[in-house]
Amino acid sequence: MVKTLSLGLLLPTLLLAGAGRDADQYVRIERLSDRVVLAHWIGPDRLCHLVGIQSQKGLVLIDTEMSPRTTTPIKERIDREFGRTDWAYVINTHGHHAGGNGAFRDVPVVAHENLAAEIQWRIDVQTDPQRKRQAIDEAAQIVTTLRDNLRQVGGNRAHARLMHGEIRFWELYVEDLEEGYEVLRPTLTFADRHTLNLGDVTLELIFFGKGHSDSDTLVYMPQEGLLFTGAIAYQRGQLPEISDESQIEDVRRSIAVLDEFLDPSVAVRRVLPSHSRPLQRKDLVPIRDYYQKMLAGVRAAQREGLTIEQAAERLAQRKVFRAFLEPPPGHWLYGLHDRNLRNLWRICQQESRPAGAMQTKN
Ligand SMILES: [Zn+2]
Question: 96 C-alpha to center of ligand 1: Å?
């Protein structure tokens, strides 16, 4: 009895100590206000802000990391920063940022209704032995490559520290995969928008439409004029996305949501994307304009009977959308503008086709 008790007391302490070291060494915290912090796991090639918010009704985290083990040290740093652990909600801005929900058992997870399907692959990867092995091998390969790169960094201590951070991140992810981790689906979902009333703070969750993912959600905090944009407004100069899943209602919705937050009557002091330094409201203008110009341009081209190649020439990124950078070949965003155009071409064709036109008589 005594043994069980002491082990029970000892184990959480030991686990906490491990997470505590990681929290101190590899998690960076930035205070935005009394109520809001940005936190991220350091690395040379990774920047994914999680947002901690304290309110009268408890703590809220916007987004989680790849898995529970890579999320727990961030949670711990935010606990310490605010001096409390009363987690009220976890919000996921989209499926890519939901892998660490399992670090928050018994805390309600709020997200768009499409998110559960979007994270099913995380369960499949763990239940299918072949996919699991492949995922572990891929993550282990990243660790190997980073270790090789670390040897070449030499005396640059700041860079080496970032690399140690990223190596630790992937090691923890491999541990989670090997042991199996819990994938927590949202427990509170919405289709259009949802408001969380937290006493002194309200958080307005707004579905952006399918684009970067199927569940892209913005979170607006009117009390501080903060707009958390997840992977929308990814970073300055990065094209927005129109995906294979996007429909006309998604494109229209994205334009309407951006219009809403570009209206001067809505207070937006800062725009906070997951993967970049804070932006300003005016950084949303080229994104809104991109959707609008692309939609108008594709519709006009189809009305005039142009081919998609002719439309691509007329709407070339280098000519019409100079606010956006063209990523180099091999970059995951290479060819994004062409993909956006192809998807919008399909969307507008479907839109102009009269209902039932797909049906053929036998
Ligand atoms: Zn994403």
Answer: 5
Can you tell me the distance from the alpha carbon of 69 to that of 71, in angstroms, rounded to the nearest whole number?
A: 5
Tell me, in angstroms, the distance from the centre of ligand 1 to residue 40's CA. 15
Structure pTM?
Answer: 0.91
pLDDT tens string 55-94: 999 999 999 999 999 999 999 999 999 999 999 999 999 9
8 in any annotated domain: no
Closest C-alpha to 94, from 225, 247, 202, 210 = 210
Instruction: Output the CA 209–ligand 1 centroid distance in Å.
Output: 14
Q: Are residues 125 and 153 in the same domain?
A: yes
Q: How much distance in Å is there from the Cα of 306 to the middle of ligand 1?
A: 34
Q: Are residues 22 and 163 in the same domain?
A: no
CA 213 / ligand 1 centre spacing (Å): 7
Tell me, in angstroms, the distance from the centre of ligand 1 to residue 262's CA. 23
Number of domains in the chain: 3
**Distance from the alpha carbon of residue 257 to the mean position of ligand 1, in angstroms:** 19
Separation of CA 166 and ligand 1 centre (Å): 18
Write out pLDDT tens, residues 96-107.
Answer: 999 999 999 999
DSSP code, position 41: E
Which residue, among 135, 155, 259, has the nearest Cα to 208 in the 3D structure?
Answer: 259
Q: Are 173 and 224 in a shared domain?
A: no
Ligand 1 centre and the CA of 43: distance in Å? 17
Token pair 């959308």 in the structure block, residue: 321
Q: Kindly state whether residues 140 and 75 are assigned to the same domain.
A: no
Distance 361 CA to ligand 1 centre (A): 43
- Residues near 231 by beta carbon (within 8 Å), at least 6 away in sequence: 93, 94, 96, 97, 212, 213, 216, 273, 274, 275
Give me the residues of the chain with pLDDT under 50, please: 1-16, 359-362
pLDDT of 331: 86
What's the gap in Å between 273 CA and the centre of ligand 1?
11
Looking at the structure, do residues 296 and 309 belong to the same domain, yes or no?
yes
pLDDT of residue 234: 75
Same domain, 86 and 195: yes
